Amino acid sequence: MKIYSYVCKMQILRSMTYKFNVYGNIIMQTIIMLTTSFFWKALYQNAETVQGVEIGSMLTYTVISSCISVILTTNVEQRITRSVEKGTIAVDLMRPVNIFAVFFAEDLGNVVALLFQNLLPIIFIGCIFIQVPLLASGASVLMFLISLCLAFFINWLLAAIFGMWAFTAINMHALLQVKRHLIRLLSGSMIPLWFFPEWLRIVLEAFPFVYLYQLPLSIYIGKCDGMSLIRGITIQLVWLAVLSFIFYILQKRAARKVMIQGG
Amino acid sequence: MIEVKNICKSYNVIQKGEGFRGALKGLISRESEKVQAVKNLSFHIQPGEIVGFIGPNGAGKSTTIKMMSGILTPSSGEILINGRDIHKYRKQVVQDIGVVFGQRSQLDWDLRLGESFELLRHIYRIDKAKYEETLNIMDQILEIKPLLSKPVRQMSLGQRVKGDLVAAMLHAPSVLFLDEPTIGLDVGAKYSLRKFVKEVNEERNTTVILTTHDLGDIEQLCDRIIIINNGELIEDGNLEEIVDRIAPYKTLVVEYYDEKAPEHARCELFFHEANVAKYRFMKKDITAAALIQALSAEAQIKDVSIEEAGIDDIIRIAYGQLKE
Questions:
Q1: B2 confidence band (pLDDT: 50, 70, 90)
Q2: I need a labelling partner for B296 at 20 to 30 A (CA). Which of A235, A241, B48, B309 fits?
């Protein structure tokens, strides 16, 4: 454990080295937040509430969605792809550590660094230009945090399982983009699923993506409580268990198939 | 003690057609071909040996080293290091192994050298006092301390290799693998690398296995060489014995006063240009003195020198580029 906490600490240091990535993400998130908020304002011009949600809640949803996207940043897929491409995966594999635990520690370190470099500026910009994202009720703060934590793990496992392909497929850059944008669309991070057609909503609720963004967001704005909240968190736990199992099975085989490029 | 038993390694290599058509075709169907990088390799290495792995590019040296250091898994066969199978007990066994790749670094590009070492100290669970002690010893051999506060990305190749050598020795492994460590290094850096290998071998009895294309490395460091070609073992043994067996000849270089070079029945005139001639003779056929005497009877000699068959001859013969 001590090893991995040190890896995490070093990653925080390393993340501080490159500043431009960080600014890029702030700008991107600001653009997404602003355009989405204009979209909601236009939509709500002739209506007080849509599907039982007020404009204020929708703007809060938008700001918090950007915040969650910072917390759900993963690097593991790129980390594996790049290491396999450059052949530095050899260095990862020659050390007396579990490489996936190292990848997790690195991602955790990254997110901690992003809390200061990205999350704070985004909240600040959101508060000034859009709306102060107030919690629906004080009681939901705990449920929101629990749900967000579960979302973090589910998201990381998805990324890690996906990233294992890179051990054999090698060039994954295009696929990584596809995955990123699919999650954006299908998780309700921009447009909540209650605006989607009924059948699509039911289909999407069977996938893990909705539980990354929409569930914690709904808890935050107070749209999800009582039975639906319990149901949501339970499904999150089920996905966590299923993905952990798949991850465990695959990671044993993944490193065996590794190809070392160059020399 | 390292035991390598019948290891094989094959890769699936995807075949791509040429040009635009091939690229398009590759999108739909891909043919893969199985390439055997290492075929049925077996050998033993005793503690404290320095073994040189040589062979042409693509012979399977690096693949073998990577299997021995737990990075790649063999398709079949087993590798025991100090009695334990490296692929079953990877995490425990690699604790006792150090690896340096000349072509890639295990140091962290974004951190200072000292921070990289500190990370390794945690990964290998080295206690602070032991770490300081090793660092002091390494400093005496490689003068590493002035580099500790330098970011790795700003280091020269020579400095980086020094850093990598120290990084590989921090946890005091009993086996050290060096994969083309001298590649691209200048004379001074090569010298300190060789000094380093000799000292860790003598003082700590570290077993060293190195691959190299630099014959100087082999002549100065290795007692034993293993020659690999096309993934197969060609020679394994003491350096001098192999030289005596594969190339039991010497070369006599004679400079005459005129351009006529006489021949002799017991040797072969294999080079003749202007007034310089080179004769190759077997040690058992004739002595150098007798040969010089016979030649000087036929033509007037200005100067002579004798060349022993060197390791480069051995390698050329073993690689099959020179017929005996």
A1: very high
A2: B309
